[in-house]
Write a structure and sequence with these properties.
19 strands; alpha+beta; 18 helices; 19-stranded antiparallel beta sheet; 30% helix; 535 residues
Length: 535
């Protein structure tokens, strides 16, 4: 008896994961000059260390009801780092954010310079972007950036800036036939200025940045905000604040920094997901044992922030993550399962693809007959022409630790494998080892992957503190898929995978409503520059 699931390996998982730091960027509805953001003039206290004080200082300039705040500095320097060059090349390869990129290119053309130079001149030093969502009135936004006086004049001239009016005695210009408003404030004794831009039809945030109302409560004065930024695990080169719910004090803050060939994002969040999340149960020791030799491993405890991202991504390019997980979704005896789950892809013995998905159970004996019946029915429904006698593959819970296998040699799934006999789905139910409180229902492709996963998950491990841990090695995954499976993987996806060495993710719960985590992307180092002529 053998079985294999309709799993189509996910070439794009690492692409989305590698761009996790970009997923909360300002939408394409932002004006052409606003792709990235950062802070107003910084005092000496803030300017030295790259710590959350940078975010706190920016929050003093923002009303407490803003929906998004992004603050950054030295973006020109970051853009020229190996990590950002790699990330931007992937954005271009996948044609992400096309409207923003084309709008920026159009603005650069108006300025008479390449897009890269325009970015460095207008956004490369210090930037702050804030926005406020309003269901009735629409979104309002404002951006302020530190530039040279020459760049400020060039921007105004290129966009046809004309005097519009004065806000509290400050001169304001209209640009692009009134579509945008502009204010320029020069710094005394320097060759620099601050430009502030906003939409011509919603000037509330623009007005606040150039002439703050002392009676308006700032984001920095909110206790939950200060509590959360104090929980950020690391400093950064750029910070993001994003309100998650208009009805609850739910929001997330994140810090991004560049380190060699790596982009590292840390975050802290107060959210409904955190309030529903069980305490962390995963240990690094157990994760490392499961992850050893794998191309992708993700372990979770309930619907974590990491899980929500993967779940959302799975609705699009990462659909295959649900290829196996979906088999568990209609299972009616949910009281026999816990929120804890694990997923892994590896090269199994015989150079075959090994995929395993496991969910924890508090009662293996009660689950075994239900799981066998459920799997048999699922397979018969999925492949009625090949598996039409469900009772043939239903051992009724007997010997639950024995790996059940189903051959799908005659199905369309078998056509994905070079060796048709490798088209095998398997599952098992493994009780705990006497010390762990849970057993595991494990299913997937290749019996060896099932047995290895179950063995690691039921072994004794040190107490866990993590809600989610994940690691993907795109280069290894690309090699695995190319060598073991016949799949319609696009050259574009493979090209991107070969440019990313590793993506890691971890998240833990600090309190009943607060989580912290990190995501890092390590890019494959660029090839060394060719020697100079005559060198």
């Amino acid at each position: 008896m053998k079985f294999r699931t309709p799993f189509i390996p996910m070439a794009a998982i690492v692409c989305a994961a590698s761009l996790i730091a970009l997923r909360d960027a300002p939408p394409d509805t932002a004006p052409p000059a606003l792709p990235a953001p950062a802070p107003p003039a910084l005092d000496a206290e803030v300017a030295a260390p790259r710590v959350p004080a940078l975010l706190r200082h920016a929050a003093e300039s923002a009303p407490s009801d803003v929906t998004t705040l992004i603050v950054a500095r030295d973006l020109a320097e970051a853009r020229n780092s190996d990590a950002c060059k790699s990330a931007l090349s992937i954005v271009e390869t996948l044609d992400l954010f096309p409207s923003s990129r084309s709008a920026w290119a159009a603005l650069a053309k108006q300025l008479g310079m390449p897009p890269e130079q325009a970015f460095d001149e207008l956004l490369g030093e210090q930037v702050l972007f804030i926005s406020r969502d309003n269901a009735e009135a629409g979104a309002s936004w404002a951006l302020t950036s530190r530039v040279s006086i020459a760049s400020a004049k060039r921007l105004g001239a290129a966009l046809g800036a004309t005097p519009r009016s004065q806000f509290d005695g400050l001169p304001v210009y209209a640009m692009e036939n009134g579509a945008f408003v502009l204010h320029i404030r020069s710094e005394k004794g320097t060759n620099t200025a601050w430009i502030t831009v906003g939409p011509g039809n919603r000037t509330d945030l623009f007005r606040h940045l150039i002439a703050p109302d002392a009676n308006t409560r700032s984001l920095a004065s909110e206790a939950p905000f200060n509590d959360l930024i104090a929980a950020l695990p690391e400093a950064g080169d750029a910070f993001l604040y994003r309100r998650l719910s208009p009805a609850e004090p739910d929001f997330a803050v994140g810090a991004i920094r560049v380190a060699g060939d790596s982009l590292i994002t840390t975050y802290a969040a107060r959210s409904a997901i955190a309030r529903k999340m069980p305490d962390g149960v995963w240990s690094r020791q157990q994760f490392d044992a499961l992850n050893r030799g794998a191309a992708i491993t993700v372990v979770e405890s309930g619907q974590t922030s990491a899980g929500r991202f993967l779940d959302a991504a799975a609705d699009g390019t990462l659909g295959p993550i649900k290829g196996i997980a979906a088999l568990f979704q209609p299972f009616s005896k949910r009281h026999l399962l816990t929120p804890r789950s694990a997923f892994t892809i590896r090269r199994a013995p015989g150079n075959d693809l090994g995929v395993a998905y496991a969910v924890a159970t508090p009662d293996t004996d009660a689950l075994a007959p239900e799981a066998d019946q459920f799997m048999a029915a699922q397979l018969a429904a999925l492949f009625p022409k090949n598996i039409n006698a469900a009772d043939r593959i239903d051992p009724g819970g007997l010997a639950p630790e024995a790996t059940r296998t189903v051959s799908l040699r005659g199905t369309g799934v078998a056509g994905l494998f070079r060796d048709k006999d490798a088209a095998v789905f398997a599952w098992s139910l493994t009780p705990n080892d006497g010390q762990s409180p849970t057993g595991w229902w494990t299913a997937g492709i290749n019996p060896d992957a099932i047995e290895r996963t179950a063995r690691v998950l039921t072994s004794n491990a040190e107490p866990g503190q993590w809600s989610a841990i994940g690691e993907a090695r795109p280069v290894d995954l690309a090699a695995l898929l190319e060598s073991t499976v016949i799949l319609p993987i696009s050259p574009t996806a493979l090209s991107v995978m070969h440019r990313i060495d590793r993506v890691t993710l971890s998240e833990r719960r600090l309190s009943p409503e607060k989580v912290v985590g990190s995501v890092s992307v390590d890019f494959v180092p660029p090839p060394p520059a060719p020697p100079a002529p005559g060198g």
